[in-house]
## 1
Amino acid sequence: MENENLIELYKTMLKIRMVERKIEGEYKYDEIKTPIHLSIGQEAIAAGVCAYLKKDDYLFGTHRSHSQYLAKGGDLNKMIAEMYLRSTGCSQGRGGSMHLVDPDVGILGSSAIVGGSFPLGTGAALASKLRKDNRVTAVFFGDGAVDEGVFHECLNFAALKKLPVIYVCENNHYAINSHELQRHSEKNIFRLAQSYGMASEQLDGNDVLQVCRHAEAAVNRARNGEGPTFLECITYRWKGHIGTVDDVGNGYRPQDEHEYWLSKCPIKWFAGYLRETGVLNDELDRSIHEELEQLIEDAFSFAKNSPKPRPEELMNHIYAS
Ligand SMILES: Cc1ncc(C[n+]2csc(CCOP(=O)(O)OP(=O)(O)O)c2C)c(N)n1
Ligand SMILES: [Mg+2]
């Protein structure tokens, strides 16, 4: 990868982290009127996969979609306005954090229904195949979504029809409080996809360069008509399932497990790699941080100064025109 692309990748990961840290900090003021699921610690997956998607490729996300939306190039101002449920939000203030959409850059929606991204994304990939539009669809989901029957139906169909789709599993080991070992008879999720006859790999989701290598191969496979790819990306969410708490201790996640994963910070690791290879230095890093801080400040003031939907607009946007 060229140096400038490596820096772009770093910026994307850092942007996700800084945006979510800002949301976390603002949440206590109770002006953000939406449940939030933070993806701090998981940034490398969306950043690495989306680095190989074109603007008009499609993406379908989950309840934990901030990273996916930002990595695919979703508009930051509209995303933050959506957190504040303003008319200027990406879902006109009707959706909140779990319903992010930006069709201008191929983000056709995120879904609060666990497993909801499978049929939507598989259907979009079928449409692309029928239309011969050469688009690739990325379907993001968590390890919890693997427990849904629709996972199997969609993987079978996509493999059978050789659809141009990439299934991206953000395996952070937990579905709310429940560990994957308590839920899965097959302990390696990627093997389930293999059984449907599609290319399927398990990888370190905190190593953005590894994600990139697999994403590039998957996108090429999809574009060349060779069918779907399944990427099981192993990671960890630093925050609790929902909101700003950590969910550590109290019989939920062990302290030592949490600490281990904090030490595997994907951004710290990548910054270290970029410095070692001479791509990043103090001055550049400082200017990237400053640029992002400004962007985020601007997005929050745009959101806070935007109008709320008016009562008489209640029935708008219910049906597509
Ligand atoms: C069909 C359905 N069942 C249950 C829920 C409640 N729920 C919301 S998030 C979640 C856990 C999802 O875990 P995972 O897919 O691993 O994603 P993560 O939160 O770890 O990113 C559950 C069970 C839901 N939203 N939809
Ligand atoms: Mg999970």
Note: Residues 13 and 43 are 5 Å apart (CA to CA).
## 2
Amino acid sequence: MQVAVITGGSSGIGQGAAFELAKRGTAVVLTYRGGRERALETVRRIEKDGGTATALPLDVARTDSFAAFREALTDVLRQWDRTTFDVLVSNAGVGQPPVMFEDTTEDLFDQMVDVHLKGPYFLTQALVPLLEDNGAVVFTTSTSALESARPTPGYSVYASVKGAQVVLTRYLAKELSVRGIRVNAVAPGVTRTRLGDDAFAQYPELIPPIAERTALGRIGEADDLGRVIAFLGSPDAAWITAQTVEASGGYEL
Ligand SMILES: NC(=O)c1ccc[n+]([C@@H]2O[C@H](COP(=O)([O-])OP(=O)(O)OC[C@H]3O[C@@H](n4cnc5c(N)ncnc54)[C@H](OP(=O)(O)O)[C@@H]3O)[C@@H](O)[C@H]2O)c1
């Protein structure tokens, strides 16, 4: 049985990845920060469909908690007769409120760096000894980080840390290739999730103008991204490494 660890699996894209991986027979360890109930509900839905899953708490901004998280993960793996796992989906993240460069505070900057760069960097470092040779890492970055993106004023910190994930993907792909581990990233376009305080549920009027700027005529759904993540983690992507795959339905094409 293949095992995947998904950070931020209690909501949105990570939850979509959890469902898609579970559908393919992969056991899932999904993490949550504040959304314990949503995480447990995700586990229940996977189990109801015959899959295997469990949920663990994790704050990726707290590097001092990673050793304990690795212990908790080791315990779960032991219950599943495993000492290693196969796929790490480094997905947890938060949006930033629109803030112009001149008004950006160190607090916001540090929060974005901790959640999207420092946390994923050192969490991967902590977990890579448990990652099976020939396994896979998938980061969730963002189209805002891509050279093809038209920069939106107010998002310089978020886009910068997401850009760092694109670079990290390439450097880790090189270093971990000696163990056959593939490292890729998915860059979602605008996707209907709870990001930004559940912005799309609160302000549905935001959706049509974005859909108009998207070649395929709608915004993304969590399962659109979940399928891409499941693919990048699977043997079907065995010859793909160091890539960032845009999955945006052709945003601003
Ligand atoms: N939605 C989009 O349009 C979009 C576009 C491009 C990229 N992305 C990226 O996609 C990823 C997933 O976001 P989403 O859109 O699916 O948003 P979401 O629905 O808000 O889900 C975010 C997930 O990350 C977890 N999380 C947040 N902060 C965390 C922390 N400090 N430590 C551990 N877990 C934390 C949340 O856990 P709890 O809910 O349990 O607190 C939740 O499971 C993020 O990296 C985001 O930047 C999203």
Note: The mean pLDDT is 97.
